[in-house]
Specification:
This protein is mostly helical. Helix content is 61%, strand content 8%.
Length: 477
């Protein structure tokens, strides 16, 4: 789904009527709702016919069900379905309950199959069953077919509506076929797929190549290109994201094990999957369970429950920090000035770990790294951690001297920072690989979890280094 940012100034969109360009101003939500409530139906009908469905949906989100019914009566069936597709799930669910049965039936039958599947799979079973009964027999069979594929699979993403041409078809015949085709959306005709008599995928041809072909009497197979990139309906959604990212295509065919063309996956659906995955990773990396809805649509009780478990787990992890401090009671009692530098040292380890973890998690997500690269990453992070630790160690050494501490104390701070920063980087970079090997989401090795682990080890490293240096060289005070 596309998201449109509306600046403060009105946005002008260019449309063409009878060859003449005509500008249409994008209405704000307030303007749109005012026109509907003041019954300016003629202008509103014209606006909804020419504006982008995503822009209209932003305004419809704030309408009551009764107002949506009035609006939908102004629009043709196809336009209703286009706008409905861009509405948030909560609004869609509410409208399915409130709209008249005939309107719901028309909406669902006009929706593209992949968009309808995304809606149906999120609905409660009882509502889903009722909705399926409102579909036409053909659309119901399609819906059941797509829902029969595993959750989070390419089969749930694919659109079974596609345009296929026969390899032995003449180019002129192909134009006639496309000209009289009224079943498929126009945007799906940009890339055409070529099949044999049994429906097996043979190749593909772009609409532009078809238009620019020299000889109308030539056959399609003379201008088609091979379809080297395909997906299987059982593939996971992340596989589709990786393939679209790698090959930079707008549409990829989906075939079964026998090569029969089942459907297509378009880039806009993959963008939605990539956005959802990125959102989950960011939320988990922040130390919380993922939210099914947006922040403002999530009930406060759910928000507390999602965050509370992680906070409690991290709190218990920090208890080990207190245990580590108590272990060094004698050192703290005899050298109280060491405590001044504890926050400085343990925060540096946590920051280093978070940096390394974010780089590795991103690398794994975009396939820049593979699980087998852990040793290469280990060596690089060890070298980087030592150099970064040396940099912070010099700064820490100078800061300790500026606070009036002796050279041995300053050296203890500086050397501890080298060890803590290097260790934090190694922990942050290796934990995502460990999670990946356990078939868990690498983002679970979240920044707070790394910080808790770095806190404990940072204290151990600091007080052991400080005790060794100060016992060997004295405090110098």
């Amino acid at each position: 789904m596309a998201f449109t940012f509306l600046p403060k100034k009105p946005v002008m969109m260019m449309t063409f009527q009878n060859g003449a360009p005509k500008a249409i101003e994008v209405l704000t939500r307030g303007q749109f709702q005012h026109e509907l409530r003041s019954r300016q139906f003629r202008h509103l009908r014209n606006y909804c016919r020419m504006a982008e469905p995503a822009d209209i949906a932003e305004s419809v989100d704030g309408l009551s069900s009764a107002e949506v019914i009035v609006l939908f009566r102004l629009l043709p069936k196809r336009r209703r379905a286009e706008i409905f597709t861009y509405l948030s799930f909560d609004v869609q669910e509410r409208l399915l309950e409130d709209l008249p049965d005939n309107v719901v039936t028309n909406l669902l039958n006009e929706m593209e199959a992949d968009d309808r599947t995304k809606l149906l799979e999120d609905l409660p079973d009882e509502i889903r069953g009722r909705i399926l009964l409102k579909l036409s027999p053909e659309e119901r069979r399609t819906a059941w077919q797509l829902l029969s594929y595993p959750e989070d699979s390419v089969g749930r993403l694919m659109n079974p509506d596609f345009i296929s041409l026969r390899a032995d078809m003449k180019i002129a015949q192909a134009f006639d076929f496309l000209r009289w085709n009224t079943v498929y959306p126009e945007d799906l005709a940009v890339e055409l797929f070529v099949t044999d008599a049994q429906g097996r995928l043979k190749g593909q041809v772009s609409l532009s190549a078809l238009v620019l072909a020299d000889a109308p009497g030539s056959t399609i197979d003379s201008i088609m290109e091979p379809s080297n990139v395909t997906l299987k309906p059982e593939d996971i959604e992340e596989a589709a994201v990786d393939i679209f990212r790698k090959y930079d295509q707008s549409v990829i065919p989906v075939t079964d094990s026998g090569g029969v063309l089942l459907g297509i996956v378009t880039a806009d659906d993959v963008f939605d999957v990539a956005e959802e995955d990125a959102t989950e990773d960011i939320q988990q990396f922040g130390g919380q369970a993922t939210l099914e809805d947006s922040y403002f649509e999530t009930p406060l009780k759910t928000l507390i429950r999602k965050r509370g478990g992680w906070l409690a787990l991290l709190f218990f992890g920090e208890l080990f920090t207190g245990t580590a401090l108590r272990h060094y009671d004698e050192a703290i009692a005899s050298m109280r000035y060491l405590v001044y530098f504890v926050p400085l040292i343990i925060s540096s380890g946590g920051n280093s770990g978070s940096q390394a973890a974010s780089l590795v998690i991103r690398g794994l997500a975009v396939n820049e790294m593979k699980p087998g690269d852990f040793m290469r990453v280990f060596k690089r992070e060890l070298a980087a951690g030592l150099w970064l630790g040396l940099l912070l160690g010099v700064i820490g050494y100078m800061r300790a001297l500026a606070w009036g501490q002796s050279h041995p104390v300053a050296a203890a701070v500086g050397l501890s920072l080298v060890g803590v920063v290097a260790f934090g980087g190694l922990v942050g970079s290796m934990l995502p690989f460990l999670m990946k090997s356990m078939k868990l989401d690498p983002a679970v090795s979240s920044s707070p979890f790394i910080a808790s682990l770095s806190d404990v080890t940072g204290i151990i490293i600091y007080f052991n280094v400080a005790s060794w240096i100060l016992h060997r060289f004295g405090t110098g005070q």
